[in-house]
């Protein structure tokens, strides 16, 4: 009797072990290092990458050494943003390298700025770029517009050109913020 209970228990343990070993693995969703400091959980929050870029433009305590480290990382963001085969994980990895190059105080200062899409619209407007929005105060992702017909895109570009503005489509609008961040960091290096 004891042997059969032992065998049943052993067999049950073996079956449970096999079921566990064959079950699909549930991996935790990776979070970015930047999201440890920056949030998108407030009204009209800009995306984390834009918060990092715009916040870096506004920081007064970026050192020349940091700027030398950050410039090629932001260049990589521009390069990866222009490649349709880039996986989001690649951009997140570069974003995390940018975050790692900054101090906790700098990241907390950027978080305290609570950068919004409306604020980014004002930034883009300074450079003559208008980003069409479907909802007031919400920035449409630059470079997207796949929902428009060719005629609608042409009409929007013609109207913007008549006003002397650049529309928020194409690579230039998509990377303007990152390019301005690089310009700012280049100025820091040369000081």
Note down, in words, how this protein is organized.
By secondary structure, this protein is mostly helical. The protein has a domain at 28-129 and 172-190. It contains nine helices and two strands; from the N terminus they run αααααααβαβα. Residues 13-18, 25-30, 139-146 and 162-170 have low confidence and may be disordered.
The tally of helices reads 9
The value of Rg in angstroms is 24 Å
Mean pLDDT, to the nearest integer, reads 76
Give the N-to-C terminal Cα separation. Answer: 86 Å
Series of secondary-structure elements, N-terminal to C-terminal: HHHHHHHEHEH
Helix content: 55-70%
- Shape descriptor: globular
- Order of adjacent strands in the largest pleated sheet: 1-2
Biggest beta sheet summary = 2 strands, parallel
In percent, how much strand structure appears in the residues?
under 5%
Structural class: mainly alpha
Assembly status: single chain
Short description:
This protein has helices spanning 2-22, 34-37, 48-58, 64-81, 88-100, 104-113, 117-126, 150-162, 170-190, and strands spanning 129-130, 166-167. With 191 residues, the chain is mainly alpha-helical. 24% of the residues are buried.
């Amino acid at each position: 009797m004891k042997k059969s209970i032992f065998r049943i228990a052993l067999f049950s343990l073996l079956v449970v072990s096999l079921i566990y070993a064959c079950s699909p693995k549930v991996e935790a969703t990776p979070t970015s290092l930047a999201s440890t400091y920056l949030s998108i959980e407030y009204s009209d929050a800009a995306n984390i990458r834009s918060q990092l870029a715009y916040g870096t433009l506004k920081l007064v305590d970026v050192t020349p050494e940091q700027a030398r480290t950050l410039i090629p990382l932001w260049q990589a963001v521009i390069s990866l943003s222009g490649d349709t085969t880039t996986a989001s994980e690649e951009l997140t990895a570069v974003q995390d390298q940018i975050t790692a190059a900054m101090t906790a105080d700098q990241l907390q200062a950027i978080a305290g700025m609570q950068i919004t899409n409306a604020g980014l619209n004002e930034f883009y407007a300074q450079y003559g770029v208008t980003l069409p929005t479907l909802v007031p105060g919400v920035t449409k992702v630059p470079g997207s517009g796949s929902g428009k017909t060719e005629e609608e895109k042409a009409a929007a570009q013609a109207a913007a050109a008549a006003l002397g503005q650049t529309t928020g489509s194409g690579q230039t609008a998509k990377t303007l913020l990152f390019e301005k961040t690089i310009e700012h960091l280049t100025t820091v290096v040369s000081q």
